[in-house]
C-alpha cells in the first residue's frame, strides 16, 4: 500500500468485531481502537463515581474529563486497568445508555477522530463508517445470525456473562434495539460499506476478506 488507511469496522454485539479488528491491525502494523470500550469506560467510571445513567449533564462532563485508553488489549481509564471489569451484562446495559447521550458521543467521537488522524488505524464500533470517519478508506459491516452471535458471546472467555443462551439472546436483542433506535448516531450500515455475514465463517476467513479490501487499489 502507498498510504496508511483508515479502516472502519462496524456491527452489532457478538459479531466478532474485536477479534477481526485486532487481527487486521496486527497484520497491517496498524493501531487498533475499540470505541465500544470507550463507552464502557464511561459507564464503568459513572458507576464508580455514583453518577446515575439518567444524569446526562454529569455523564457528558465525565466523558470530557476522564482519560480513556482503548488502543490495545488492555483498556484503561485514568490509568486503571478495567479490561475485565467492563465485560459483563451490567456494563453492557450501562454502555448502551451512555451511548444514547449526545454530549457523551460528542466527547468520545472527538477523541476517536484524533486517534485516527493520519490513518494507520483499524477502528471498530457502531458508527465508525457513518459518523466518526464517514470518508474512511475501507468500511466493513460485520453481521451474523442472532443465534450465532449469542453462541459466540456465551463462549467468549473475556466476557463475564450468563451461559444461558436464551437470556444472552434476549440481552443482545435489547442492546441491538437500543443501538438501532437511538436518536444520535444509530447503528446502521453505511451506504458504501461492505457487509460480511460472518455466520459459518472462521475468523481467518473474515480477516482475509478485510485484508483483501485494504490491499485493493483505490478506484479512480
Largest sheet: 5 strands, parallel
CATH topology: Rossmann fold
Poorly predicted regions: none
Which CATH class? Alpha Beta
Q: Please, how many helices? A: 9
How many domain modules? 1
Q: CATH architecture, please?
A: 3-Layer(aba) Sandwich
Number of E strands: 8
Mean pLDDT: 91
The coarse silhouette is: globular
Percent helix among the residues? 40-55%
Percentage of residues in DSSP E strands = 5-15%
Biggest sheet: strands side by side, in what order?
A: 2-6-1-7-8
The radius of gyration over CA amounts to 16 Å
Topology pattern, helix = H, strand = E: EHEHHEEEHHEHEHHEH
The CATH superfamily label reads: P-loop containing nucleotide triphosphate hydrolases
Q: Give the helix/strand class.
A: alpha/beta
Q: Distance between termini?
A: 15 Å
Features:
five-stranded parallel sheet; globular; Rossmann fold; 48% helix; 9 helices; single chain; alpha/beta
Amino acid at each position: 500500500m502507498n498510504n496508511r488507511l483508515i479502516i472502519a469496522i462496524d456491527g452489532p454485539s457478538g459479531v466478532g468485531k474485536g477479534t477481526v479488528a485486532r487481527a487486521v491491525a496486527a497484520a497491517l502494523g496498524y493501531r487498533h481502537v475499540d470505541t465500544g470500550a470507550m463507552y464502557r469506560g464511561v459507564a464503568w467510571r459513572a458507576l464508580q463515581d455514583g453518577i446515575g445513567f439518567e444524569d446526562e449533564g454529569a455523564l457528558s462532563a465525565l466523558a470530557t474529563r476522564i482519560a480513556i485508553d482503548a488502543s490495545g488489549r488492555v483498556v484503561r481509564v485514568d490509568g486503571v486497568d478495567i479490561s475485565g471489569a467492563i465485560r459483563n451484562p451490567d456494563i453492557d446495559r450501562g454502555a448502551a445508555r451512555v451511548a444514547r447521550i449526545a454530549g457523551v458521543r460528542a466527547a468520545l467521537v472527538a477523541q476517536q477522530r484524533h486517534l485516527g488522524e493520519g490513518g494507520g488505524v483499524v477502528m471498530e464500533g457502531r458508527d465508525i463508517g457513518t459518523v466518526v470517519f464517514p470518508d474512511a478508506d475501507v468500511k466493513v459491516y460485520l453481521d451474523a445470525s442472532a443465534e450465532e452471535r449469542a453462541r459466540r458471546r456465551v463462549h467468549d472467555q473475556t466476557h463475564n456473562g450468563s451461559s444461558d443462551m436464551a437470556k444472552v439472546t434476549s440481552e443482545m436483542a435489547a442492546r441491538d434495539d437500543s443501538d438501532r433506535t437511538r436518536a444520535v448516531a444509530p447503528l446502521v450500515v453505511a451506504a458504501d460499506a461492505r457487509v460480511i455475514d460472518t455466520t459459518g465463517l472462521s475468523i481467518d476467513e473474515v480477516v482475509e476478506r478485510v485484508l483483501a479490501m485494504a490491499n485493493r487499489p483505490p478506484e479512480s
